[in-house]
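Troubleshooting: if your tokenizer reports a length mismatch, compare your output against this known-good record of 462 residues.
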Amino acid sequence: MARADTAAIAGGVPGVVLMEAAGRAVARAAMRRFRPVRTLVLAGPGNNGGDGWVAARLLEQAGWPVVVAPLALPRPGGDAALAAARWRGPVVPFSAAEAARAGLVVDAVFGAGLSKPVDGLAADVLGAVRCPLVAVDVPSGVDGATGEVIGFAPNAALTVTFFRRKPGHLLYPGRALCGETVLADIGLPASVLPAIGPRAWRNGPWLWRILRPGAASHKYARGHVAVAAGKGMTGAARLVATGARRAGAGLLSVAAPDAATAAVLRAGDPGVIVAEDRAALLADVRIGTWVIGPGLPPDEGTRALLRETVSAGRQVVADAGALRAAAGDPAALAGCAVLTPHAGEFSAVFGPPGADRPGAVRAAAAATGAVLVLKGADTLIAAPDGRLAINDNAPPWLATGGTGDVLAGIVAGLLAQGMPPFEAAAAAVHVHGEAARRAGPGMLAEDLGSVIAHAIATYWLD
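Known-good structure output:
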């Protein structure tokens, strides 16, 4: 946001105009959602505080009872100092007592670019709030780049941000602290974006395209996916197969490790091809995409299969056992197209992601040359070139056993149809969330199959 402000100001938009627009957006959002009550504006010394001074003035002009409590006065000569000088209302101490008796609090203490922990007096005052809180840009203490809490952060009922959402609005725990997030236009021109060169986006169909099957399309044109099944864990392969087929793959083969496993698999969906000769499947150049890992043990046999498949030039989606087999050895995953770890698998291979999860997944993608999908409530999709998508459409009931296998299948199904790895992974994650929303609370992984195709169809482009 600071870079966008700087670019806009350099392009002729006065900073004080942007600050007035931001404060106006905060005041309007508060007036639309709350009735007039004793309102306390907590103002920091920077531009975030300047937005708060403006909001206070506009709320008071609208007849609201408003007081301002500055943590510190703005630097003289800056835009925030000008905004503070225009305030003619009451100024009260920045204290826990004032926070506790307010009917509404506007948190304009620190913004998204916070670099030090919120502690001491600031934490005490924010922690004393007992009423709805409106955050300016982000709740103070939330890192706008990672969503992590630096020291203390309050729980906002409403967050008003500007120009574009920040990663911290989409990533937990920050996302949970923002409450309702309103994105306000404050006059920053879209022309500043190319100079900034954003490398992170909210995941959605603006990042990828799923083409509607053509009238002349046939099963061979829509790709052939193979899934390596494990002994005694046939359910995982079946779920992968469901995801890939429902995502549009024209053909699906399951490579069984032995005759007994093959017999179990053949008793399942009749449209799935079951083969016991894994080598023959691997030699078939028409089968360009493989899923390796679900239902497989984390052992040398799985590592060998992964190496062999990658060496054969196939696109590989690696999950579960294939990731655990590479514990502590990220190089073993080099050459894969997409990796789909959950937090535990990621930590086993690459080490704990730490506070900067976006940075960690980007580094893992760059190290392996694969697109990295770190699964969770706020799934991150990173490309080796640094692009990052943050997914926010997954409902909480998606967190149930087997759904990750279905996701690996969706990724493979889209890859097989020709989507590039980053786009295929991002689209698959979004479709996965939309399918779960349609399936509804209480869904099982098996329920996703009936709704994936309908979810995909909502994104079809001609």
